[in-house]
# Entry
Amino acid sequence: MAMFHAGLLKNHGTGGDATVMDRADWAERFRTLAHTTRDPRLKAYYLAGAPAGRTPLKEAPLLALDVETTGLDLARDEVVSIGVVPLSLDRIRASQARHWLLRPRAPLGHEAVTLHGITEQRVRRAPDLDQVLADVLAQMAGRVLVVHCREIERRFLDKAIRERTGEGIEFPTIDTMELEARLYRRPLPWWKRWFAAPATPVSIRLSPSRMRYGLPRYRMHHALTDALATAELFQAQVAHRFGPETPLSALWH
# Structure
């Protein structure tokens, strides 16, 4: 649900430190987790490692990811679909994109159905996340995830995996929403706050952010389409505001 802002989450606690931690050295963290994790699928994921923070973006293994959920209440709602698209700064590997429709353990909320169009009938024969978890983690392995609003992906995936394995998940992310916030949510100097009239906040949601870079308009709230849209937005952000030599450590969390 990449179009939602983290502030709309109705419950901020899942019990997993992956939702709040900024990692300076994800490679070291993954080595630690590989030794302590019990679930073989998660262990294989951590054993694949993470790139060093000094890795320039032009060399970084990247994967755009989006999840759709049954709603935004972390205590009750669940992931209902996942979309991933591998990318580099100059190429989006659409032929390697993957999409999973999942059968959630929570009922689909009316608002969520209206947004993403996934109904109870569609998910009735879909697999539980536990059945495809190894496949999902294999796509994520060794890559830095590019997301729009990391609180959604991190918190909901951590919760879903914790409920099925007894262990949560941690992963490095580059958040395209946060990169827009760096530009449009910076506090004004005191003298501007004193003399300037309050400005209308600039939206940093996915679709308005894409429009500012001249990217095409897509129908949002499909996990695969939103992952593709996030990948394109990230490429535009790097081209306009950062650069291929920018280290991962400058952007990831």
